[in-house]
Amino acid sequence: MKYYSRRQALSSFATLSSSLAIGLGLPNYIWGRQSHAIKEPSNFQGRLDPYPSKWLPKGIRSRFVDGINGLKMHILEAGHEVKGRPGILLLHGFPEMAYSWRNIMVPLAEQGYHVIAPDQRGYGRTTGWDNEYDTDLHSFSFLNIVRDSLALVHAMGHRKVVVVGHDFGSPIAACCAVTRPDVFTKVAMMSAPFSGTPTLPFDTTDNPQHSEPPKDDLPTELAKLSPPRKHYQLYYRTREANKNMWKAKQGLHAFLRGYYHYKSADWKGNNPFKLAARTASEMAQIPTYYIMNYADGMAETVARFMPTSERVAGNTWLSEEALKIYVNEYQRTGFQGGLNWYRSTGIGTSELQLFAGRKIEQPSIFISGAQDWGIYQSPGAIEKMQKEACTDMRGVHLIPGAGHWVQQEQANLTVEKLIDFLKA
Fold first, then answer.
1. Which of 9-13, 162-166, 302-306, 378-382 has the lowest mean pLDDT?
2. Quick check: 69 pLDDT over 80?
3. More exposed terminus of the chain, fewer Cβ within 10 Å: N or C?
4. 337-372, pLDDT tens digit by residue?
């Protein structure tokens, strides 16, 4: 029997984590420990009701669905009045909620669809999850979140749906498409390209050097820059991240306003371009919401780029009234539920390797804001998505006048691309 040292064991686990992270367009040093806990958010107190109707555009309703893989899931729904319509499942990212789809749900429903947008595990008014840092993380793994989506689709009476994912919802949508193509028959990914499934070591019997994991020096090299930098996903894994944002010195309202502004087309510094390689010098060209100053938390990062009061007053895609809804929800939950997604990206890698070599073969589309750095933050990912990961890619659309929050910033153009895709 062969015994492994602690160093060798960690190296083996890191190899598994790397393959998942690379396949999902994430840095390959993001991984966490396995877990199995599912319970109420520790800071949840009292009863949660559906949204008041005045919070939502006419035609959208808020409701709860019980028994969704251990969750009581809060969803927004449009086109529910007529039974038997084809379904569309909308999966949000971080730090968002089902509410982030509010501007495109009714237009999609008007095209004859039943549109379903959940607060995903870790977010909003969905309960049944643990938002502590010192929790087990297995329930936040990719396949378990896919299981959430599958359970919701079935509970809503659909055998097949179109799945649309934005930001971290994009790799989840891709995993839905890879693992259950019979259910998720079309997939639209937004802002985060999908570069493929995790790989297994190949041709190692007579070439053992092929089994060596690629070494990732990016965190070390970023820290050596002047000024030193760090990757935001590495920061999101830290114990301090939740409190830094949730209890930001400038207040939660100002923090969220700054965060959404800094990553939008409203901040004129967002002029993304392809990077030559995933090296520290190249990555340092990305704004600090992705490649952060080493000494700063995210609250300090966005505080330097606050919009003027005039720009806030003129914001047509995120009014103060809409922002207050985000503030209301995150004030109660904090951010740890969403941050646990980043911490758990390595968990379940061995499970996803069951799908090694699988591609998205059903019709797919990619939509992003033209001013969104998310397209290029993983060099080569968008090209690999088109050439390798998806075999029936129907289009890559970069929407002018939009940054990272494309379905909010340019709702009409986003709907137009989606409808063209759905009707093709």
1. 9-13
2. yes
3. N
4. 999 999 998 886 778 889 999 999 999 999 999 999
Q: How far is CA 271 from the centre of its chain?
A: 21
Q: Poorest-confidence range of 44-48, 66-70, 228-232?
A: 44-48
Structure tokens belonging to residue 79? 């086109």
CA angle 201, 206, 209 (to 5 degrees): 55
**Position 27: which residue type?**
P
418 sits in which H/E element: helix 411-423
Domain assignments of the chain as residue spans, ordered by start = 53-199+346-423
CA distances (Å), origin 187, targets 172, 292, 330, 359: 10, 31, 29, 12
Q: What span, in angstroms and rounded, lies between the C-alpha atoms of 15 and 18? A: 5
DSSP 146-212: HHHHHHHHHHTT-S-EEEEEETTHHHHHHHHHHH-TTTEEEEEEESS----PPP---S-SS-GGGGS
Using a 10 angstrom Cβ sphere, with 0-12 exposed, 13-18 middle and 19 or more buried, the burial of residue 277 is: exposed
**Alpha-carbon distances, residue 258 vs 72, 285, 304, 321 (angstroms):** 31, 20, 8, 15
Q: Which residue has the higher pLDDT, 205 or 263?
A: 263
* Radius of gyration, alpha carbons of the chain: 21
Query: With contact defined as beta carbons under 8 Å apart, do 151 and 89 qualify?
Result: no
3-state secondary structure of 43: coil
pTM score over 0.85: yes
Question: Span 53-199+346-423: which CATH code?
Answer: 3.40.50.1820
Tell me the pLDDT tens digit for each residue of 8-57. Answer: 443 333 433 443 444 455 543 333 333 333 333 444 546 899 999 999 99
d(CA 73, CA 151): 11
HSE-CB of 97 using CA atoms within 13 angstroms: 25
As a whole number of angstroms, the distance between CA 191 and CA 170 comes to 7
Rounded CA separation 392/410 (Å): 25
Angle between helices 102-109 and 411-423 (to 10 degrees): 40
Tokens representing 3 are 């015994």
Average pLDDT of the chain?
90
